[in-house]
Write a structure and sequence with these properties.
Elements lengths: L4 E2 L20 H14 L4 E3 L9 E5 L13 H5 L2 E23 L2 E19 L5 E7 H14 L10 H15 L9 E2 L3
Parallel strand pairs: 1-7
Antiparallel strand pairs: 2-3, 3-4, 4-5, 5-6
């Protein structure tokens, strides 16, 4: 089932999310719905707050990037990078900061350069509640950091300079008021 994505201004996007247990109700259905929702919006990541749930759950599927010539050097790593992250904790961020133009399904029509560390170590549970600790670099690290921020109540616009924040403020207000055209289901703050 395709769920509406919460728009900028929705309070749930600012919540520090809580951990879940393996008996979380209908978890498999929720994860399937999240992938359906993300795919219908042509996204590569989606966090639970973006569908209105303040739980530590996000998904990532980087396979669409594997066909992009900009990523041909890491295409093999991206093609199979479809993961569920439950109760994730970033243990370490390292390397140089690099800028990349980011966007977000909850903040349509706003894209800005964001600096992030190039490598992370993350600990998480998969959809079967098997614990993993992984070191990720390149686009894998960037997208995971973006989605991880969501479960911490942080949006990519929070990483912008004061000047950039002022420049996008008008767009953010319009999004929060529902004044944006998207080709996917959205729910705007009341």
């Amino acid at each position: 089932m395709i769920l509406p994505i919460r728009a900028f201004g929705d309070a749930v996007l600012r919540k520090h999310c809580h951990e879940i247990k393996s008996d979380y109700p209908d978890l498999k259905i929720l994860i399937d719905n999240m992938f359906d929702t993300m795919n219908s919006a042509n996204g590569i990541g989606l966090a639970a707050p973006q569908i209105g749930l303040d739980i530590r759950l996000f998904i990532v599927d980087l396979s669409p990037l594997a066909e992009d010539e900009d990523y041909e050097d890491i295409a093999a790593e991206l093609i199979d990078f479809r993961k569920v992250f439950i109760n994730a904790q970033i243990l370490e961020e390292s390397g140089e900061e690099w800028k990349f133009n980011e966007g977000c399904l909850s903040i349509p029509d706003v894209r800005e350069d964001v600096k992030r560390k190039e490598t992370i170590v993350i600990e998480y549970l998969d959809e079967n509640f098997v614990k993993h600790t992984e070191t990720l670099s390149d686009m894998r690290a960037r997208v995971v950091q973006h989605e991880y921020d969501h479960i911490e109540g942080i949006l990519f616009t929070d990483h912008l300079s004061s000047l950039k924040k002022k420049l996008v403020k008008g767009k953010l207000i319009k999004i929060s008021q529902g004044e944006v055209g998207v080709n996917y289901k959205m729910r705007f703050p009341k």
